[in-house]
Structure formats: C-alpha cells, structure tokens
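User: Quick sanity check before I run a bigger batch. Here is a single chain. Can you write out its predicted 3D structure?
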Amino acid sequence: MPTRWFTAADDLHATLLESLPLLERGDTVVVSEKVAVFLTGRAVPIDAVQPGRLAHLLARAVRPRPGSRGLSVPEKMQFVVAEIGRPRVIVAALLSALTRPFGFAGVFYRVAGPVARDVDGGRPPYEHLVFPPLTAGESTELCADLEAWLGVGVAIVDLNDYGGTVRGVSPQAAAPGVLLAVLAGNLLGQRSTSTPFGIVRRLSDR
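Assistant: Done. Predicted structure follows.
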C-alpha cells in the first residue's frame, strides 16, 4: 500500500494508523524492517561513523549487486567492524579472498554474520543514515507491541529482489514460512514504490 514519504519526525504507530485500511480478524500487518528502524529512531547518522583504514580497504574490495552499494560504503563497513570486531572481519575477508577464485560467493557475509549481511543505508535518499538490522529480540518485542496496539498479527520483514527474511512475528501473525511464500518476488517493492506496509489476509472460506 503506497504511503507518503516519511521523515524522522514521524512515528511508527502514527504512520501505521494513517496508512492502513480497516483491518480484519486474522490479518497480519507486514512492516518493512528499514521503515521500522527509521521510525523507531534506531538509524545512525552516517557522519557519526568515521571509517578507519581497514574499513576503507575492505570497502574497495566489495562487489555490490546491481542497484545496491552494499558494504562498498566505507561508513557501513566501519559500522560492521565496530559491531563484530576487527578479528572476525579480518577472518571473514581472508576466507572470502581465498575462496572467491574457486567460485564461492558470499563467504564474507556468512562468516561476518547478519550485521554485515543486513546493514542498510548510505544511498539516496538516505545517504545520511546507516540502518542497523534489528536483532531477533528487538523484532519480536516490536511486533508484540504493535499487535497489542493494532489488534492483529504483525511481522517485520526484510525483502529484496533476491529473497528475504522474516525478522520477527507477533503471536497472532502468520507463520514465517507462510509469509515468505506469500511475499515471494518482493511484493512490497523497493524505494520507488513507497510501499513499506502490507497486509497478508486469509482467503475467505465462502
């Protein structure tokens, strides 16, 4: 469902109330992780992250997918270094360099972990922000809070054209596997579609 363009002055609860149509029992409201991070004040100003030599070196070696800058942004790489530590980042980089000639892709991200894989931001229109991924606990807690407020299930998801993950669900939400099957193909779209929220609704038996 298309929405207006949100700003840091907006609140997640208020924007959901403004954007969602009338909900029905059994619905699961789907919320984009990036918007959840942004509207709960968890985004980090990019100028607060000062990349060091290691971050600059590793960022130059990144080969991002089309339409994404990934960790080629030194500030995002520095955020990862700060979060998981230099030793783990160095081991991930070395293993990636050793295995890449043999056709193994994604080794750096598997070794470095979800922060490296899922950190976002650093590109227009949010080139001034870094979006840390939510932890499982943060996602589950936020979903439960939103469910208590909306009265229906809530899921936070991170989707793109290459797949996605369900970050967390509330007790009344559809199962993660069901949500991924329904949302396959990135139905929420990307930035240009302005659709950070969706509703997964059961088909009527009638």
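The radius of gyration is 18 Å.

User: Great, the batch can go ahead then.
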